[in-house]
């Protein structure tokens, strides 16, 4: 098989083992060829049903699809709190209230942002003399991470149905129960609203072997790979088209021109959202030294706690034992982490802040942390901030995202031009801005990292990436006419109803 669990020696060879590697380590108990043979029939049954459903679904009209996704969104809304509680209970990651918000954003929220017709209806361009027909990928394989299982199912199921694709999910074993249950809910809602049977399915014995069997099938049209690097690289090596996401490591520069109280409140709220599980949460605050004291005070007033030297020793020992990351801290609150590390924090503390002198491979605080602990470093001016951000990205996070707070457009332009990332959130929370919820970026939690991060897509992965277009192009010669192409398309569509 092309997709293998990392050896312990591989993980230990790096200065710090990122949580994405820990995500890869929880895999499967399946180990021999006999059990592999037992898995293949299940995978074949899933593919058979999905293939039949895909053929039927590709003929659906916009009105038919709209009815389906509205039913799914409503079902997701009604169960948002139920699944938020379940996923936190099963995985131990994050908190219920923020998971409810994520679930709502990835169900009803998608109806607010996208027009289904954009991915189904043909487009006639008389000026360019091109008629374009959107075509679904067919069968999509969608990986579910343990850190955001329900939100991921909501999102990937919704955008798959919105584009007339069928989807087979592969849950992470650490979130198996809630993942399978929510996939079944989405499938039931979709089928009740008219979707073909088998349009939404899931592997029920999740693990590496079943995932490999599924991803390498020539019947698969596209893989949406969310999770650790081994899972993403396995998708790329499968031989099928795949869109993968890389790790984040969000540098947040606060320039002297920023609205300091607003910036501080947004930074703390974003870093502490769902206990910092989203990869777009701020990782390190790079403070312009001119406003360093004011920013520290404002961050403290917003729920940030600057860790003392004595407490920092305890914190580092707890978070980074044996040159790795303590998996028990993943998705836990600042107060819980402080208690485990052996020091107390004021009531209402949302984020632990550690002042650092440098960034890079030797400073784990300057790397992605899926818990609410932020680095803080003061620098002299814009170029020093850029150099610091580049140092972070040289270690990890290229292509992903960054944040800046400033009221000087020239600083935004300079910062954006310098950093090898595909999205920069300006004067907003990283968790909302980079995922398109408080900005007009493509709305979605699946973050493409572009060439910088080893991905083929530099955008958030919205429904437009799940269709491709057949284009009939007429000569540019003005004497050659398309005729009444809109009438021709209308007639074609009326025949398919």
From TrEMBL:
Descriptive protein name: Aldehyde dehydrogenase domain-containing protein
Gene3D superfamilies, alphabetized: Aldehyde Dehydrogenase, Chain A, domain 1 (3.40.605.10), Aldehyde Dehydrogenase, Chain A, domain 2 (3.40.309.10)
Domain Aldehyde dehydrogenase: 40-299
Entry annotated with the keyword Cytoplasm: no
Gene Ontology molecular function: oxidoreductase activity, acting on the aldehyde or oxo group of donors, NAD or NADP as acceptor
Entry-linked InterPro entries: Ald_DH/histidinol_DH, Ald_DH_C, Ald_DH_N, Aldehyde_DH_dom
Keywords carried by this UniProt record: Oxidoreductase
Any matching Pfam family: Aldedh
